[in-house]
TrEMBL record:
<keyword id="KW-0694">RNA-binding</keyword>
<dbReference type="InterPro" id="IPR027408">
    <property type="entry name" value="PNPase/RNase_PH_dom_sf"/>
</dbReference>
<dbReference type="InterPro" id="IPR001247">
    <property type="entry name" value="ExoRNase_PH_dom1"/>
</dbReference>
<keyword id="KW-0007">Acetylation</keyword>
<dbReference type="GO" id="GO:0000176">
    <property type="term" value="C:nuclear exosome (RNase complex)"/>
</dbReference>
<dbReference type="GO" id="GO:0034476">
    <property type="term" value="P:U5 snRNA 3'-end processing"/>
</dbReference>
<dbReference type="Pfam" id="PF01138">
    <property type="entry name" value="RNase_PH"/>
</dbReference>
<dbReference type="GO" id="GO:0034475">
    <property type="term" value="P:U4 snRNA 3'-end processing"/>
</dbReference>
<protein>
    <recommendedName>
        <fullName>Exosome complex component RRP43</fullName>
    </recommendedName>
</protein>
<dbReference type="GO" id="GO:0071038">
    <property type="term" value="P:TRAMP-dependent tRNA surveillance pathway"/>
</dbReference>
<dbReference type="GO" id="GO:0071035">
    <property type="term" value="P:nuclear polyadenylation-dependent rRNA catabolic process"/>
</dbReference>
<dbReference type="GO" id="GO:0000177">
    <property type="term" value="C:cytoplasmic exosome (RNase complex)"/>
</dbReference>
<keyword id="KW-0271">Exosome</keyword>
<dbReference type="InterPro" id="IPR050590">
    <property type="entry name" value="Exosome_comp_Rrp42_subfam"/>
</dbReference>
<feature type="domain" description="Exoribonuclease phosphorolytic">
    <location>
        <begin position="13"/>
        <end position="150"/>
    </location>
</feature>
<keyword id="KW-0963">Cytoplasm</keyword>
<dbReference type="Pfam" id="PF03725">
    <property type="entry name" value="RNase_PH_C"/>
</dbReference>
């Protein structure tokens, strides 16, 4: 009623967002990023490997996302195989990659039918305080923008691949999908960027993913209370504004680390 939340934010206010890109995140990965949304902390590492493309898509590489919610990040998760929430988050990220065409899989092909890149994108939550989907999507985008792949050629005589580590080039990022999550209370009230406590109390959540042109890439609504068309439109408008803020933040960080 007072337009105020337990942590002092207004209903439409996001938590402080920081992103750390590159070597200071994971030195052994081909690209990495650490994202903090308030206390929620997510790290993403991208590892590139060579493989033969699938027979039915000889000119495409692969992107394999995996979201982990270890017991380390919150008491709500247990050690062992991935739980429902982690599997749903991995599927959400896979859908975002597919729907937004963040990277054209054709760009990952080195030699048609012979050799292609596989990008393993491991997203690990280090501290869980709600809204893990926004942080995961942000960390993935920032890590992919940090990836440098060596040039690879196939030797005509031997048929073997030759990797030149001295000559590296960045990935072609064709789109910048950004996720914006809302918690729904009493079917009427919407708050952005919910904390873990707010998620537990909410009657539902919805995550909107938009791209550079303000187009919808994905709407993720796992059950809960319904949303009217007008409320959904409100969410989309807010998500488009949030997209600009996140894109500005990523550009600023990348420009600051360019050699």
């Amino acid at each position: 009623k007072e337009n105020c939340r337990p942590d002092g934010r207004e209903l439409g206010e996001f938590r402080a967002t920081t992103v750390n890109i590159g070597k200071c995140s994971i030195t052994t990965a081909d690209g990495s990023a650490l994202v903090k949304l308030g206390n929620t902390t997510v790290i993403c590492g991208v590892k590139a490997e060579l493989a033969a493309p699938a027979a039915d898509s000889a000119n495409k590489g692969y992107i394999v996302p995996n979201v982990e919610l270890p017991s380390l990040c919150s008491t709500r998760f247990r050690s062992g195989p991935p739980g429902e929430e982690a599997q749903a988050a991995s599927q959400f990220i896979a859908d975002v990659i597919e729907n937004s065409q963040i990277i054209a899989k054709e760009d990952l092909c080195i030699a048609n039918g012979k050799l292609a890149w596989v990008l393993y994108c491991d997203i690990i939550c280090l501290d869980y305080d709600g809204n893990v989907l926004d942080a995961s999507a942000f960390a993935l985008l920032a890590a992919l923008k940090n990836v440098q792949l060596p040039s690879v050629t196939i030797n005509e005589e031997t048929g073997l691949s030759e990797v030149n580590l001295k000559q590296k080039s960045p990935l072609t990022i064709r789109n910048h999908p950004v996720a914006t999550s809302f918690a729904i209370f009493d079917d009427t009230l919407l708050i952005v960027d919910p904390t873990a406590e707010e998620e537990d109390l909410a009657t539902g959540t919805v995550t909107i993913v938009t791209d550079d042109e303000g187009r919808l890439c994905s709407v993720h609504k796992p059950g809960g209370s319904p949303l009217t068309g007008a409320k959904l439109q409100d969410c989309i408008t807010r998500a488009i504004t949030r997209h600009k803020e996140v894109k500005k933040l990523i550009d600023k960080v990348i420009n600051s680390i360019k050699p």
